[in-house]
Amino acid sequence: MKSLRRGTGWGPYLWPYVSFLVLREVQDRMPAGAAPYMRIFRVVLTAALLLFFFLRGDYPELRGWRPTVRGVVQDLLMGLATTVLWVAPYVVFQFLPRADLKEAFNPYALGTSLAPTYVAIRFAGFAAVTPFMEELFIRSFLMRYLDVFDTGQDFRDVPIARFRWRSFFWTWVVFTFSHLPWEYPVAAATGLLWNLWLYHRKHLGSLVFVHAVTNGSLFLLVALASGRFHDLQGRVLDLWYFL
User: Which of 34, 46, 142, 185 is the most exposed place for a label (fewest CB within 10 A)?
Assistant: First the structure.
């Protein structure tokens, strides 16, 4: 893996992302009683890989971010707006496909006593680990690599947020189809919006923050609103399938 990093620079971006996806597939095929432990392991392993590569200095695009108050407010509002974009269609339009509630995140899967710990780990994975892992792979590595893979140029020499139609389109496609099928409509809208936001903000740190705000506020919305409110048809909202 060390030689891979020196030769291509792919390793720090591929290993966290691919391991996360592979373990998700393994988790989906495990017995119900074992799946929560795999979910925890998936978060811990991905976080450990990201931290390892970060401490080794493999993510220079995360350095040099100097957020201003105005910029942070803009990113915060973008993150909250994306949460609304992600949830509202499924609350308003009942014809949209959605996940089976049997597959939704169950905070009590490990029992009542471990529920706070299990929820905290899930929140950390959702609001911290996933934003770093996904943005580093899609809008840092993949977006730059797609620009130059046929030229022999090292993707690490390509500046972050350089617009090219090819990378813009294919990162949007990859982002969309890396989600579950029922999420495709909102994932497509989000991928388009976030690509444009990166070109506007010019630093990956901004996108990681937007992604973290979106996921964190979505998690809190699900936890606080499920079972307490009704949709437009008068049915009790159960939003756990978003997690």
Answer: 34
Ramachandran class of 30: left when φ > 0, alpha when ψ lies in -120 to 50, beta otherwise: beta
Please check whether residue 40 lies inside any domain of the structure.
no
In a domain, residue 22? The reply is no
Measuring CA to CA, which residue among 149, 195, 146, 141 is closest to residue 172? 195
d(CA 2, CA 35): 32
Which residue from 140, 134, 104, 101 is spatially nearest to 122, judged by alpha carbons? Answer: 104
pLDDT digits (tens, 9 = 90+) for 69-116: 999 999 999 999 999 999 999 888 878 888 777 778 889 999 999 999
Collapsed DSSP state (helix, strand, coil) of residue 228: coil
Query: Has residue 114 been placed in a domain?
Result: yes
CA 162 to chain centre: 21
Q: What pLDDT score does 2 carry?
A: 40
| Closest among 110, 132, 134, 133 to 121, alpha carbons compared | 110
Calculated CA dihedral for residues 228, 230, 236, 242, nearest 10 degrees? -80
Q: For 144, list phi and psi in degrees, rounded to 5.
A: -80, -40
**Structural domain count of the chain:** 1
Q: Supply 98's token pair.
A: 């959605």
